TrEMBL record:
GO terms for cellular component: cytosol. Pfam families: HTH_1, LysR_substrate. One of its GO terms (molecular function) is DNA-binding transcription factor activity. This is LysR family transcriptional regulator. InterPro entries: HTH-type_LysR_regulators, LysR_HTH_N, LysR_subst-bd, WH-like_DNA-bd_sf, WH_DNA-bd_sf.
Length: 292
């Protein structure tokens, strides 16, 4: 079977359009239509609904899509490995980084990596840890930073850093007089939180469930400067990593009682080929972590 139609099928599934799929793949739209029609004839199955303007996969098409994504991923990895055997000096790293780390921990690492490996292209995707893990599992990312709570069997991880989640309040908040803050006291306050799907929010939601409390979320935002500003002005309390707090932030942080520590790691798919570029990035990040 020619695998090109499988690429077309994946693009159609993502764009829900023959025209947009053709643009994404940089091919003529009739070529996409003809290839899909031939694939359907070869299989004796209808793969795509064409009854109305909304293009979508049939049940048979959805089942083939699962296999198509695996086949294309394996083929791309095979071609990459063969290219590297020829000693190519170029490469690409697609890495997912949660927002908090992307803003405060990784910028100097990424700049230093580019300085050491100027021919390697870095593609950095910021997002929630859950979203990034799914992108990693589907092959959209090569590496991703995750919170090493529950790691699926399909992923392998390397320890990165250990950070404490700290209760964060304005300098005149009553919590500033305490050495530690109990979860029960924390959940009596109006909270400034990241949106669902981010590790910051998931940790707080798990803690609330354990305490049988309902969080009073007054503000939801993924913008760390906004979280700081709202907290500084006394409109709520939050919880942030130590690395996020600067000396001039006019914020006070306190440990939870008991403290909450996060083990952050960088993960990749166990069954995938890890390119030389990605291996170099892993080694560089590990080296940087030891020297911090």
């Amino acid at each position: 079977m020619d695998i090109k139609p499988l690429r077309y099928l994946i693009a159609i599934a993502k764009t829900e359009s023959f025209t947009q799929a053709a643009k994404q793949l940089n091919v003529a739209q009739p070529a996409v239509s003809m290839a899909i029609k031939k694939l359907e004839n070869d299989l004796g199955l209808t793969l795509i609904h064409r009854a109305d303007r909304n293009i979508g996969l049939t049940d048979e098409g959805k089942k083939l899509l699962i296999h198509a994504e695996k086949i294309i991923q394996s083929m791309d990895e095979a071609l990459l490995e063969m290219s590297e055997l020829k000693g190519l000096s170029q490469g690409e790293v697609r890495v997912g980084i949660p927002s908090m780390l992307g803003s405060y921990y990784f910028p100097p690492i990424l700049m230093a990596f580019r300085h050491r490996y100027p021919t390697i292209t870095l593609k950095v995707i910021e997002g929630g840890t859950w979203q990034l893990q799914k992108m990693l599992e589907s092959g959209e990312l090569d590496l991703s930073v995750i919170v090493a709570e529950t790691l699926p069997d399909s992923l392998q991880t390397q320890a990165l850093i250990r950070e404490e989640m700290r209760v964060t309040v304005a300098t005149d908040h009553p919590f500033s007089q305490l050495e530690k803050v109990s979860p029960e006291a924390f959940f009596e306050e109006e909270l400034v939180m990241f949106k669902e799907g981010y590790f910051h929010r998931r940790i707080v939601d798990k803690l609330a469930k354990k305490c049988k409390k309902t969080p009073k979320i007054g503000f939801e935002t993924n913008l760390i400067p906004l979280i700081k500003s709202i907290t500084q002005q006394g409109f709520g309390v939050s919880t942030l990593l130590n690395m996020v707090i600067d000396d001039d932030d006019e914020l006070i942080t306190r440990s939870f009682d008991p403290p909450i520590w996060l083990d952050l790691g960088i993960a990749w798919r166990k069954d995938s080929y890890l390119s030389k570029a990605n291996q170099a990035f892993l080694e560089f990040v590990s080296e940087h972590g030891r020297n911090r």
